[in-house]
Amino acid sequence: MNTRIFKLLVLLLSINFGMQSQTEYKLSENAEMKIDGSSTVSDWAVEVQEATGSFTLVNEVKMEVGASLYSTLEFSFPVEKMESGRGPIMNSKIKKALLSEANPSVTYTSTENKIISVDGNNFILESKGIISAAGVEKPFEVSFDCIFDAEMNTISFEGNKDLTLSMFDIVKPTAFFGKLQTKDELNVKFKVSFTK
């Protein structure tokens, strides 16, 4: 193929892609996220506060099973705003375990989002991407129960995911001279909405 024609085709494709409409949905302030865990003494829970995020779509939502949403889901929250409900000592242990001075945020960025089930305006979204915590990045896959409200311009996500501290090389916090030892398993629960 003539080099000049090839360059022209690349330019036209680039312009066409750039002209595709992008719609950005921003994380609503009423986002709920909680991390549940346990120790040798009792169960515990940490509330996530001041989370930020966005769900950016190229073109419109295609409500079909197997449809890949050309989109990017981004979610982040500051470690400093994680609240244990057990006072400043426990909050300090959380920050230390997550190496918050060097890594102030926990983040997730999707690389692929696919609809795997549809029921009216409800659908299940399988999201794959990268999660980063305590300076460690890991491949991450999670399923969301979603509701698309076209009139309110809102997409709601709800779900939970089992994780471990060890997958991020996090040293498990202890207290009372080692009598209280944090267990490795965690469960993250989330109920969030993104609004255009």
Automatic annotation (TrEMBL):
Domain Lipid/polyisoprenoid-binding YceI-like: 47-194
Domain of life according to the entry: Bacteria
Protein name, per record: Lipid/polyisoprenoid-binding YceI-like domain-containing protein
Organism, scientific name: Seonamhaeicola maritimus
Origin organism lineage: Bacteria, Pseudomonadati, Bacteroidota, Flavobacteriia, Flavobacteriales
